[in-house]
Amino acid sequence: MKPRASRYVLLTAAYNEESRLSKTISSVISQTYLPEKWVIVSDGSTDRTDAITLQYVKEYPFVELLHREKGSSHDFASKVYALAAGFQLLRNVSFEFIGHLDADVSFGPTYFADLLMRLECDPSLGVAGGDIYEWDGRNYSPRKGNSVRSVAGAVQMFRHQCYDSIGGFLPLEHGGEDWCAEVTARMKGWRVRSFPELVVYHHHGSKGWVGRMRRRYREGMMDFCLGSHPLFEIAKLARRLQGRPLIVGACVRLCAYVFAACYRERRIVSEEFVRFLRQEQMERLRAFTRRR
Known about the structure:
Layout: E1 8-14, H1 21-29, E2 37-43, H2 49-57, E3 63-68, H3 76-88, E4 97-100, E5 105-107, H4 111-121, E6 125-135, E7 140-142, E8 157-159, H5 160-166, H6 177-187, E9 191-202, H7 208-225, H8 230-238, H9 244-262, H10 271-291
Parallel strand pairs: 1-2, 1-4, 2-3, 6-9
Antiparallel strand pairs: 4-8, 5-9, 6-7, 6-8
């Protein structure tokens, strides 16, 4: 079954994804309902990302490659700028929905058709996507952070009106641009929902112990810079204290949050955003307390 002729486009920012990009491209070109256009932005890649993409560009007219040169550093703000550059190539394309798609995911052939049908059934739904599955050493299983109230940045699909209303993504130094986008969408009156029955496989590489701890530190900085409430931060991390790696990771994340607070790390989100986010978080804390 196909959705009601709703047009959709895709944006991907890819940086040195030669080992995983083919899986993502194969998933998209195998869809029962294809996008009007898919812009893949090679964000300063130095491997075969460009060459792999060009192989498909020749055969599939809806796929377009944009190579973006940049400096020596690769950060989260760079990804936002890459997506913004890709969006410029969609100015003359008519569409109802726009998806941000990471270059290291894969999914079944009806993924977008099924997702669009759900979006069409609920005009208030501004952001939607599937659930992320990750390799646990033996098989793919749901990521622990999956929640029906949040959509992973790797597969966020926006209603065009919602995308316009949030004003694009903020170039955040420590990441969290996808989180910021969905909070802003709710602040603007849109619903955000993920669908566990729509499975997305994440083919990320292992970062090792040091890499994981760096990620937790960055996440703590991100939490503070987006305005996460201190009580919510403590409660969230307390729930993750199961097993030595998780305990260490949670402590590193909390230490980064405290460090950012002590040194008054700069926030570029608005005060309205911080108030809205903290109100949401405290409501969730109160709801959790009542259940107990």
